[in-house]
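Data availability (excerpt). All sequences and predicted token strings are deposited with the supplementary files. A representative entry, DUF2922 domain-containing protein, is shown inline so that the format can be inspected without opening the archive.
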Amino acid sequence: MTNETLTLQLEFKDAEKKTRQLNLEHTKQDLSAELVQQAMNQIVTSHLIDKKGVDAYQSPQAARYIRRTVSDVFAAAKN
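Structure token line:
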């Protein structure tokens, strides 16, 4: 059996210039760059703060789709 998942990964720099990633599952596959950039800018203007008080998503850097395929080699019989 093969199982495939698609994740939209949004990459930001935080207030300390460290890279932060936000992974979104169950997203549309054909989102335009403009729409994703608008969404990322909305996240930035929300000023989400992490547990250390750092602005977690300060500057949009990139967005990418990550496709993951898992193929079973074998599985024990279920009783």
